[in-house]
Write a sequence for this structure.
């Protein structure tokens, strides 16, 4: 996630998103959140955030009217935290070009928050200490701390205990985007934890994770069942994908799904998948990204 200067008073940052290659719910915590064990990977579906300082206060505009531009938006809350922590008067005029699906489990909004933080640190030449950035990220949401790192990582706790797993081998994913969103809180509320012990992501050496990604053995998401319980269309997409030989899994709390894409030579298969799922889900292709943190 690189911040680029566009003159003395403007910066631009492209903010990627993530897939949950593995997501197990270990249990419910006393604070109402769930204890998780996840493997996350950054991918190159990106939004573009432009930040200028010719403003009084904090203003956000977005080319997608479905995106809130007030304090419900992580960008606005990240900017507030930045100015507070840096001891500067709030001056930021921001524009978001939204391309990552909203409410899709891809963490686009979480990445936007870190993008805003990095853009403002660059614009004001006011880098916050890493621990301060981490504290702000945790306050902004469960998926936000991962975007301080990117790449391939194991994330535990609520998502804030992060062990980077090194650079993933270059790979491409099919991302299936249904025409509806899932509410994270509703999906968790619909979850019945099994009485059996939680699945393990296995030994966590980067080599073994890579191997299990290649074999398709790693992909798992405990939230698929509760999400399908809420949205019957979702179960239909998964069934259709499996019928045509695509082992699709949900990312985060949905509603997007993903599977490994064929290598470039086998791209014809990806086009067939898009055709077979037409009307049920839009198919996009994304590449994994190395860590930036
Ligand atoms: O932290 P965030 O705002 O992304 O979480 C949204 C909702 O998802 C929470 O209010 C909670 O209901 C649920 N959640 C959870 N356990 C997690 C993460 C999220 O129960 N580890």
């Amino acid at each position: 996630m690189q911040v680029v200067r566009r003159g003395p008073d403007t910066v631009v940052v492209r903010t990627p998103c993530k897939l949950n290659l593995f997501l197990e719910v270990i249990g419910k915590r006393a604070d109402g959140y769930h204890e998780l064990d996840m493997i996350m990977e950054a991918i190159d579906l990106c939004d573009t955030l432009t930040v200028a300082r010719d403003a009084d206060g904090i203003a956000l505009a977005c080319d997608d009217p479905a995106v809130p531009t007030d304090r419900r938006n992580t960008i606005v809350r990240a900017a507030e935290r930045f100015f507070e922590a840096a001891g500067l008067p709030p001056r930021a005029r921001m524009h978001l070009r939204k391309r990552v699906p909203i409410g899709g489990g891809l963490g686009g909004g979480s990445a936007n928050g870190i993008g805003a933080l990095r853009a403002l640190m660059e614009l004001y030449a006011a880098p916050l200490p890493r621990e301060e950035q981490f504290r702000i990220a945790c306050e902004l949401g469960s998926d936000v701390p991962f975007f301080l790192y990117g790449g391939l990582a194991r994330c535990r706790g609520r998502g804030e205990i992060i062990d980077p797993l090194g650079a993933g081998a270059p790979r491409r994913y099919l991302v299936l985007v249904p025409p509806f969103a899932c509410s994270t809180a509703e999906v968790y509320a619909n979850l019945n934890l099994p009485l059996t012990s939680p699945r393990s992501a296995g030994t966590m050496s980067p080599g073994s994770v890579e191997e299990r990604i290649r074999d398709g053995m790693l992909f798992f998401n405990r939230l698929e069942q509760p999400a399908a319980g809420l949205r019957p269309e979702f179960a239909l997409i998964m069934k259709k994908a499996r019928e045509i030989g695509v082992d699709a899994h949900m990312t985060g709390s949905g509603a997007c799904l993903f599977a490994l894409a064929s290598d470039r030579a086998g791209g014809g298969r990806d086009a067939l998948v898009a055709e077979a799922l037409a009307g049920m889900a839009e198919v996009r292709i994304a590449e994994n990204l190395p860590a930036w943190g």
Q: What stands out?
A: Residues 33-34, 36, 141-143, 158-159, 184-185, 188 surround cytidine-5'-monophosphate (CB under 6 Å).
